[in-house]
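Example record for the data management plan.
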Amino acid sequence: MNSVLHKAETRGHANHGWLDSHHSFSFANYYNPERMNFGVLRVLNDDMVIEGRGFGTHPHDNMEIISIPLEGDLEHKDSMGNTTVIKQGDVQVMSAGTGIFHSEYNKNTDEPVKFLQIWVFPNKKDVEPRYDQITLDPVKLKNQFYQILSPNPDDEGVWVHQDAWFHMGDFSAGNETHYKLKGNNHGVYAFVINGDVEINGQPLNERDGYGIWNVKQMEVKATGDAKVLLMEVPMSMN
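Corresponding structural encoding:
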């Protein structure tokens, strides 16, 4: 088994006033050659945007972009004609493909919005841009890892142009479970949204990241109430 531990306090950090962002991997002005990516997982940003502010219209291409709100409401507009609001319990995906423009704003004037923005390299370039969002059933997250993303349009959750699976679970203290990897030459990057867990004996706390590869299964124990995101991705860019 190989592993890499990213404690929350070691992440890159940028505070722009309206945006307070923590970067698990190199992003914008944060550059760490040892934290460029985890396999095809390129970006994991933990963002907080203040009331009424946000990201103006900007371009993306050839990237699978996943947004997971943690608190508040995020308004999205894009060049495909979508105008939507995503909130806690939702998962949003965009296949940027040949190119899109979009904006993201905190819809509220009385509270910040907090969300994870995740970028995954696609396995197909120049696909037709695509948008989707879903609302998760909290019952299905309780004390188990529930699939929220896969490569298959007919499976549970959203889908991406990549051999990747994301699962999320909301665990009570003392709960123990396991996760079996689906692909060869895959790894899993676990991100603790809140609470305390142990993964294969490694203690983890809120906003810690822990990547594991060259393993077929991982054991997860909630040492306190905890919410955990697992991102299984190919470790090779091919």
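Summary line stored alongside the record: The helical segments are 138-141.
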